[in-house]
Design a protein that fits this description.
Elements: E1 2-8, E2 11-18, E3 27-30, E4 39-42, H1 44-67, H2 73-95, E5 99-100, E6 108-109, H3 112-125, H4 130-143, H5 150-161, H6 165-179, H7 183-199, H8 203-216, H9 221-237, E7 247-250, E8 253-256
Antiparallel strand pairs: 1-2, 3-4, 5-6, 7-8
Helix pairs in contact: 1-2, 1-3, 2-3, 3-4, 4-5, 5-6, 6-7, 7-8, 7-9, 8-9
């Protein structure tokens, strides 16, 4: 999604959003004097996004009432389920327009709007209907790898919320495998897995995760920096491990690790 800025004689007349997709032609029409009716961006991706944007703007108005607590818990739940279904139906409709990406793995390139609609649908279900949320994430992952890592992270977070640390770790690990050669997606999942092991005080699994990350993403400079940042945490500073030696001089004497 990119901003398109229309200006004349140095004066900005409008800023609009447009979707630029790989191998797609976008037709841009502008007539002056400029107005909303003399400007258009035409392409399948942009038509799909305009539909998504209309639905999302309507939802945002409803969200204001939900956040203000204007509805009781049962009514709020029904409203969230209704809007989740609306976004999901948009995903199903726009997602059928995706083209196979041609790499033979069955992955389908969804429209940008379809991806946003799916993400919104499953996010609204978190804590409202986790079973339906999981089913929709699994379905979208099977059709669109762009749902990695967002869908995986959401699944893992819900398992953590329910106290299932082992299940959350397993879901992140499977997501890393699904990410394949998508380095940014794999990096985000490895980062989440690192934090999970750190919070669980599992230094052994944490070090193993960092070693795997270093091996799998050795060409990713951000992943390398992450490994360098977290390795000392697990080797020396992780909860439950003995602190490194230190000496701190104060007005009343000298403090060391052994004196505390």
């Amino acid at each position: 999604l990119y901003p398109v800025r229309i200006s004349r004689y140095g004066q900005e007349l409008a800023t609009l959003n447009t979707v630029l997709a790989d191998a797609e032609t976008v037709e841009l029409n502008v007539r002056f004097p400029f107005s909303d009716t003399t400007f258009s961006i035409i392409s399948p991706e942009n038509e799909a996004y305009r539909t998504y944007d209309r639905v999302n703007r309507s939802f945002r108005r409803v969200a204001v009432y939900l956040q203000a607590g204007a509805l009781d818990a049962d009514s709020a739940r029904k409203e969230l389920l209704k809007w989740s279904d609306l976004f999901w139906s948009l995903y199903e409709e726009e997602g059928t327009e995706g083209d196979p990406d041609g790499n033979g793995d069955g992955n389908v390139r969804q429209t940008y709007a379809a991806h946003r609609a799916a993400a919104q649908s499953v996010t609204l279900l978190a804590g409202v209907d986790d079973s339906l949320m999981t089913a929709r994430i699994e379905r979208s992952l099977a059709r669109d790898r762009a749902m990695i890592p967002g869908g995986i992270l959401l699944l893992a977070s819900r398992r953590l919320a329910n106290g299932d640390t082992t299940g959350a770790a397993a879901r992140l690990e499977s997501g890393i495998a699904q990410a394949g050669d998508d380095a940014p997606a794999a990096r985000q999942l490895y980062q989440a897995l690192t934090r999970l092991h750190y919070d669980a005080r599992d230094s052994l699994q944490g070090r193993q995760t960092l070693r795997a990350m270093s091996s799998d993403l050795k060409r990713d400079s951000l992943a390398t920096a992450w490994v360098e940042r977290w390795t000392p945490e697990f080797n020396e500073l992780a909860p439950g491990r003995l602190a490194p030696d230190f000496e701190l001089r104060t007005e009343t004497g000298t403090l060391t690790r052994d004196s505390l």
